[in-house]
Write the structure tokens for this entry.
Amino acid sequence: MKSFRTYNLTPETRKRNWHVVDAEGEILGRLATRIAAILRGKDKPEFTPHVDSGDFVIVVNADKIKTTGRKLDKKIYYRHTGYPGGLKETSLRTLLQHKPERAIYYAVKGMLPKNKLSKAQLKKLKVYAGSEHPHQAQQPRTLQP
Amino acid sequence: MRIKRGTLKNRRHKKYLKEAKGYRGSRGSLYRSAREGVEKAHSHAYRDRRRKKREFRKLWITRINAGARQHGLSYSEFMTGLRRMDVQMNRKVLADMAVRDKSGFAKLAEMAKTKV
């Protein structure tokens, strides 16, 4: 029998769909793993590691995300300004008050591989605090829980 | 007549420089750097011919897993089901079916479900 080649997806042949997910009452990390897998395209049989083959994900009600335990105050986000003594910290509670979209964004970002594709994959994640999103034109499908 | 080594040396150098064509900077033009680059490339090629087998198997498993999950089965459940049915297809074929022959893959998944 003639040998055949393993299927290879290219940027021209990929199909990129849109999903919308309601974050209300979802657990932060549990939701983020599923989102990360979709952004990478690992839910598709056509998955190709060197091509950004994943779908777009819209998250609404990002401010109503849940965490277990005492993470609201115990989970700290660090960043450094570059100046001496410039290490800043924000707890999840204040983050959710001031930039509610960021919590899911950071969680998913940390779960994506650190490579050339990750930036493009992260760009396909759209997070909104309210229940509205401006992507109706893309006809997103609701993600099953 | 006295034999000198110039021609042989020249030939050897040309062999490496020919293979290093297109390398960046001095690695494509200077013999010593070119030889380092070529030897490294050969050792990577040798290593990766062996890795290729593992990496493709990994990719097929990822794809079969994605395909099986669309039918409500995990990879391990799917494969267990196929083994109990004595299906002899390898992972390369199964992964290809998940992409190109979705109805056939769906049938396999339905059959596997009854055996899990």
